[in-house]
Amino acid sequence: MTRPSVLFVCLGNICRSPMAEGALRKASHDAGIAIDVDSAGTGDWHIGRPPDPRAQLVAREHGIDIAGYRARQVTPHDFLRFDHILALDLQNLRDLKVIAPAREQSRLELLMDLVPGREGTAVADPYFGDEDDFRTAWNDVVRASAFLIERLAR
Ligand code: 4NP
């Protein structure tokens, strides 16, 4: 079996999707399941930048170092590289649908659709918030990662 691949996509690739990447890397390691994990943003403002210091802080609170990640912009080619492309919010999902090649739309999902009771909801953008908003986003991506691991392990 080839290892599954997962791409998380938010707006800037400096807050939510790097936290999701860090959370899934840790969860896959703990579960002993090999998964290729990456993250990207729909926007181009932060290309090449490390995650927001608050995202790094919250990940570090959970023993995860995301300081070495660098932001990049999602491309249509990502739909050929990744089995699963997970949008962090509904605007990210709409933006991804526009660039997804028609026959690859099925790879695309809203991340919180993986969490029973949270279908159709967003991982709220913490960028204009405070550290607790980052902790809320962290909790969301950790929960979703657990369901994703369960699905990929089947
Ligand atoms: P992210 O957060 O999409 O979770 O990385 C944001 C980062 C930057 C901006 C907005 C959201 N921004 O407006 O620059």
Give a verbal description of the structure:
With 154 residues, the protein is of the alpha/beta class. The protein has one domain: Rossmann fold (3-Layer(aba) Sandwich), CATH 3.40.50.2300. 40% of the residues lie in helices and 12% in strands. It is built from 5 helices and 4 strands. The chain has helices spanning 16-31, 53-61, 78-81, 90-99, 131-153, and strands spanning 5-10, 36-41, 84-87, 108-110. Strands 2-1-3-4 form a 4-stranded parallel sheet. The two termini are 12 Å apart. The model has no long low-confidence stretch (mean pLDDT 97). The structure holds 4-nitrophenyl phosphate.
Give me some keywords for this one:
alpha/beta, Rossmann fold, binds 4-nitrophenyl phosphate, globular
Distance between the termini: 12 Å
The total beta strand count reads 4
CATH architectural category: 3-Layer(aba) Sandwich
> What number is the mean pLDDT?
97
* Distinct small-molecule ligands in the complex: 4-nitrophenyl phosphate
Strand content: 5-15%
Major sheet: size, sense and barrel closure?
Answer: 4 strands, parallel
Shape: globular
Oligomer: single chain
**Contiguous runs where pLDDT drops below 50 for at least 5 residues:** none
Please tell me how large the radius of gyration is: 14 Å
Structure classification: alpha/beta
Number of domains: 1
Give the H and E element order.
EHEHHEHEH
Helix proportion range: 40-55%
